[in-house]
Q: What sequence folds into this?
């Protein structure tokens, strides 16, 4: 799992690549949280173009960041979602509260 | 066609990706679609993660995986000898989690149920948990 972070104004763009599971989730969570706190991040964009797998551990990570971003009055966007990840996002109900695109 | 494989790994989170990849490699003989393979990988990942996070609560232990192919059905059994589940039907409720760690979504069993055709959970407190899942390929 690799994570690439870029800040544009108050928006953090996190490009994720590889597999998101219970083993890799803490790494993603810590990297995003650190950046969110160092810079004054309000919005979060999660780029899923290179995510090859995600299980419900990823749902926990997204939901956790959503709560924090919501508390800051911002928005979370998930972009370039692949079909295999889309299915689990759908089940989780996250798609009803997040801005999600393919 | 009838075939099987058995796998045993220590309850370490780094083995989650190995187990789902191994099960996916075994399931290739069924000539399954990309979506079916992804469903299987996800369900396996949930069951193995449950064993590690809940069954053993991140302590030492062994997770045993058995896969069987009977005609066009893939049967996967994932067993641990951990703490077990007091109330299985409660544990299977969406969003229920007893997780010792933060940010567990409580969606594990829901994902297994949605992505596979059959799910059976047998557990005894103090003895462990056996999750059996079936998926009919091309069905």
A:
């Amino acid at each position: 799992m690799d994570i690439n972070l870029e800040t544009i104004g108050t928006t953090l763009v996190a490009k994720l690549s590889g597999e998101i599971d219970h083993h890799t989730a803490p790494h993603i969570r810590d990297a995003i949280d650190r950046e969110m706190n160092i810079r004054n991040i309000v919005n979060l964009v999660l780029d899923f173009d290179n995510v090859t797998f995600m299980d419900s551990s990823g749902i926990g990570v997204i939901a956790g960041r959503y709560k924090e971003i919501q508390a800051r009055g911002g928005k979370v966007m998930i972009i370039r979602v692949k079909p295999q990840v889309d299915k689990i996002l759908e089940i989780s109900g996250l798609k009803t509260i997040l801005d999600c695109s393919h | 066609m009838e075939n099987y494989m058995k796998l045993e790994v220590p309850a370490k989170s780094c083995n989650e990706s190995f187990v789902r990849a191994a099960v996916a490699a075994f399931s290739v003989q069924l000539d399954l679609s990309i979506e079916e393979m992804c469903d299987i990988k996800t369900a396996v990942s949930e069951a193995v993660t449950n064993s590690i996070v809940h069954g053993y609560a991140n302590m030492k232990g062994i997770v045993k995986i058995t896969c069987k192919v009977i005609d066009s059905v893939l049967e996967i059994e994932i067993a641990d000898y951990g703490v077990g589940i007091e109330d299985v039907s409660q544990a299977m409720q969406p969003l229920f989690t007893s997780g010792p760690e933060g940010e567990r979504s409580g969606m594990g069993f829901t994902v297994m149920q949605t992505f596979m055709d059959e799910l059976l959970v047998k557990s005894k407190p103090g003895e462990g948990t056996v999750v059996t899942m079936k998926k009919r390929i091309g069905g």
In short: Residues 43 and 74 of chain A are 5 Å apart (CA to CA). The radius of gyration of chain A is 12 Å. Chain A has three helices and five strands. Helices of chain A lie at 25-38, 56-71, 83-92.
